[in-house]
TrEMBL record:
Pfam families: PGK
Principal subcellular localization: cytoplasm
Lineage of origin: Bacteria, Bacillati, Actinomycetota, Actinomycetes, Kitasatosporales
UniProt xrefs under HAMAP family: Phosphoglyc_kinase
Name of the protein this chain belongs to: Phosphoglycerate kinase
Keywords: ATP-binding, Cytoplasm, Glycolysis, Kinase, Nucleotide-binding, Transferase
EC number: 2.7.2.3
Recorded metabolic or biological pathway in which this protein acts: Carbohydrate degradation; glycolysis; pyruvate from D-glyceraldehyde 3-phosphate: step 2/5
Location relative to the cell: Cytoplasm
Catalytic activity reported: (2R)-3-phosphoglycerate + ATP = (2R)-3-phospho-glyceroyl phosphate + ADP
Amino acid sequence: MKTIDELLAAGVSGKRVFVRADLNVPLSDGTITDDGRIRAVLPTVKALADAGAKVVVASHLGRPKGAPDPAFSLAPAASRLGELLGSAVAFATDTVGQSAQDTVAGLAEGQVAVLENLRFNAGETSKDDAERGAFADQLAALADVYVGDGFGAVHRKHASVYDLPAKLPHYAGYLIATEVDVLKKLTEDVRRPYVVVLGGAKVSDKLAVIDQLLDKADRLLIGGGMAYTFLKAKGHEVGISLLQEDQVPAVTEYMERAEKQGVELVLPVDVVVSRTFPDLKTKAPTEHTVVDADKIPADQEGLDIGPKTRELYASKLADAATVFWNGPMGVFEHPDYAEGTKAVAQALVDSDGFTVVGGGDSAAAVRTLGFDETAFGHISTGGGASLEYLEGKTLPGLAALED
Ligand SMILES: Nc1ncnc2c1ncn2[C@@H]1O[C@H](COP(=O)(O)OP(=O)(O)O)[C@@H](O)[C@H]1O
Ligand SMILES: O=C(OP(=O)(O)O)[C@H](O)COP(=O)(O)O
């Protein structure tokens, strides 16, 4: 993989450099609640701007349906990037249309522009190679060079991640280089016990990862929205909790294999349940109770791991030499359901092992719940991306940066 240092050494002054970043930041009412992913790409953007490049930053945000949707605009991320850079950042109100073309054409050397959400275009995420390729051609027309630095999206075979780099000279940015360096350590000679903690809401994506992790980890702790498919597979009522019904057979098989292979697969023994999903904007207090994991009422949903589970998971993390954690243990954005995530974060802080936290929301959780980032071995900007890297998969966005 050629890195941005080679590009800088060759000179980029006056060149239009397309930076595929991951600015998929959490937003509440249009306000960014954690800007970690924007700060993570700053070294790359700054270096290019300082070297006189015309920097075109592009990203997705959320999962809009292939058409413009103001709720998913990158405008707030563009203005935050400008604040962090200490200079104005131009914003194109479309991704490859007139606004993008005019904005890029108007860039002076050393200036930065952000394009509107890549996923406002169906070609970005299309499964059809030709449709993705056509969109990548439109993106390629906006730049002379490609720098891949959106680590959180390198597991996606999307136009801006996979197809575009093939059309332009391509380099890895500083963030991708750092992320890969650290995660490599977890695939080479990992110190044991190696404990993986999985939670979050992207259940269908992440359940599949367990297949490979069973051959790698010594212990798997399951929380967050992931847990209920396991509890269902054990024959428990899960009420209206997040559930990936179609993956119940696969999860049953994982539990059997874990047993056979001597991998400890640990599930919640109690959960915090409520009749309604909390209001994350007002954070108004909710009615909630703690129940044993096999006693979830049919009309309620599990929104956090309970106090007994928090203690159990802390004890399962205490002797770990290596920990990888992706996915909050509960709906941490609301104080009534943040304690499980806090407990796991605290267990990592207390650990003498090498600890890695991965994922947009997991990283945001650690910071917004008041933990000191330096107390962790590494905070990765990618959840799904780092999990798939640890699985040993070829990631489209990394393969595309290789020659
Ligand atoms: N029990 C649960 N039910 C519903 N959502 C949950 C539950 N536990 C955690 N979540 C949600 O999971 C989201 C993060 O999931 P995910 O995107 O998979 O994590 P990451 O971005 O760290 O990879 C958070 O917004 C959190 O509110
Ligand atoms: O937030 C992200 O991933 P993560 O939640 O696994 O960390 C990335 O921006 C990728 O987003 P996607 O899962 O909608 O492709």
